[in-house]
Design goal:
alpha+beta; two-stranded antiparallel ribbon; about 30% strand
Length: about 140
């Protein structure tokens, strides 16, 4: 079982899984502008995005899964799914259909080292799904 901890309570602090901020690794090559694998990370966030948003806005669903927000995000991001576009060029949705069905929204955050994907939200999968399907999400093992 993974160990989850937090670097602090500020919106820009990280959740850690086994001491690492990388919850999963988004494979390279799915997006033309992202040829290299990039880590997926969970910020503490606020009521609009990140761990606080998920716990506040989707807390009833999270509690039904009998996991913390961080544990549920980690569990879902390490499953295969389908990648869809959103209204923004740097945000994408991952449709994750293994129980519990979930939709995860990621936003690209640019950094000097190449950047990372930040978890915006995770929630119970809606019936309909907008956006164009652009490929399969197959997470890579962390540390590669």
């Amino acid at each position: 079982m993974a160990d989850f901890d937090c670097t602090g309570s500020h919106w820009n602090d990280w959740w850690l899984v086994d001491g690492s901020p990388d919850f999963a690794v988004f494979p390279g090559g799915l997006l033309e502008w992202a040829p290299e694998p990039l880590p997926i990370r969970l910020h503490v966030g606020n009521l609009s995005w990140g761990e606080r948003h998920i716990g506040h806005k989707h807390g009833v669903w999270v509690r039904r899964q009998k996991m913390s927000v961080a544990a549920l995000v980690h569990h879902k991001l390490n499953q295969h799914g389908s990648l869809y576009t959103t209204e923004a060029d740097t945000k994408f949705k991952i449709s994750l259909r293994l129980a519990p069905d979930a939709l995860c929204v990621l936003r690209y955050e640019r950094q000097s080292d190449g950047g990372y994907w930040s978890v915006v939200t995770l929630y119970s999968h809606p019936q309909g799904l907008d956006g164009m399907r652009i490929g399969r999400y197959r997470p890579m093992p962390r540390g590669q």
